[in-house]
Amino acid sequence: MKVASTPARELAIDVHGIVKRFGDRVAVDGVSLRVEQGQIVAFLGPNGSGKTTTMRVLCGLLTPDAGEGRVLGMDLLRDTIRIRQEIGYMTQSFSLYEELTIEENLEFVAGLYRLHPAREHVRRTLADLGLTSRRNQLAGTLSGGWKQRLALAACVMHQPRLLVLDEPTAGVDPKARREFWQELHALSLAGITVLVSTHYMDEAERCHQINYVSQGRLIVTGTVDEVIARSGLVTWVLRGGRMDEAERLLRAAPHVDQVAPFGAELHVVGRDGPALARVVRQIARDTDAQAEPSVTRLEDAFIHFIGRGAPDRNGEPA
Ligand SMILES: Nc1ncnc2c1ncn2[C@@H]1O[C@H](COP(=O)(O)OP(=O)(O)OP(=O)(O)O)[C@@H](O)[C@H]1O
After folding, report:
1. 313 lines ligand 1 (CB under 6 A)
2. Which of 27, 66, 74, 312 is buried deepest, with most CB atoms within 10 A?
């Protein structure tokens, strides 16, 4: 046993070369990933890029066609039943019994998982998720945010070590989304590893690790800062002056990869820093605008990665 190579923090996920095919379609294409225990990990990418399939393979719900690795210290290929017992999975269309109360829904789930004593598991889960005062409310009368909180309660009641959430906040208002993310961070602090797919940049920015998926491949992995740095992009902001004209000139200018209006500002992004600076300063002068360098945002980095998308294996446009 090589003690010296033991990582500082235990790895919840350590997989290599994962491939998953559906017929001729390669949904996951050679994914390798390491995730430390207790991290919140985002999967981003266009619809159909393989986020859900990747997460399903990683939590033992789908068997990969190739690849190997360990999840929660167990063998991804041999220990799938044991891995599944340790995961909580919230699908895109989580289902609740609308005609049952919050408490009755959780009692039902406790029965499915054969949790004993069920009453105690339900009581603890209601308290942990801030649902106790609403426990007698019918699920069908809950707002989107509370329904989603109940769905989260249902998938953490059996105390999983790995939580898999497939676009959990789609259609939920900003306040409820923020509260939901506070819950995820509390779970993370308790040592639970969270895999979450999302299309929201602000949610990605709340994660310890971001994975950008395109056509089944991991295009980039890292922290927010690492992902932005890997894009190699430089950003300038223009304000004041004749913005319509500035935008038109910038779109036609060399060394400008992206131009995006934000309120009264234009964000201009490119890869060649000195060349971009020259172009932006000239156009700012010509349009009576002020120009200054700015911080590259995650969204700009992703738009850059989308544009570069990996070669398509499935014969569809990138
Ligand atoms: N059970 C299945 N049988 C056949 N093809 C599938 C199956 N599940 C997924 N696919 C295909 O695999 C590819 C990846 O799908 P997946 O659902 O993983 O993408 P996604 O990034 O999660 O998409 P979305 O953002 O729309 O949820 C798609 O082309 C999809 O049609």
Report:
1. no
2. 27
ipTM surpasses cut 0.85: yes
Q: Strands 66-71 and 11-22, how do they pair? A: antiparallel
- Res. 185: pLDDT tops 90: yes
Read off the pLDDT of residues 75-100 as tens digits, 9 standing for 90 and up.
999 999 999 999 999 987 777 899 99
Q: Are 195 and 163 in contact (CB under 8 A)?
A: yes
Top mutation candidate among 18, 19, 25, 57 for ligand 1, by most atoms within 8 Å of CB: 25
What pLDDT shows up at residue 309? 56
- Name the maximum alpha-carbon separation found in the chain: 74
Nearest CA to ligand 1 atom 2: 22
Q: Kindly list the structural domains of the chain, giving each domain's residue range(s) and its CATH number in brackets, ordered by start.
A: 8-228 (3.40.50.300), 234-295 (3.30.70.100)
Task: Give the residue-averaged pLDDT of 30-47.
Answer: 95
Q: Ligand 1 centroid vs 50 CA: distance in angstroms?
A: 6
| Residue 52 Cβ < 6 Å to ligand 1 | yes
H/E element, 241:
none
The rounded Å distance from CA 166 to ligand 1 centre is: 12
Name which residue sits closest to atom 18 of ligand 1, judged by CA: 50
Residue 300 burial by Cβ neighbours in a 10 Å radius (0-12, 13-18, 19+):
buried
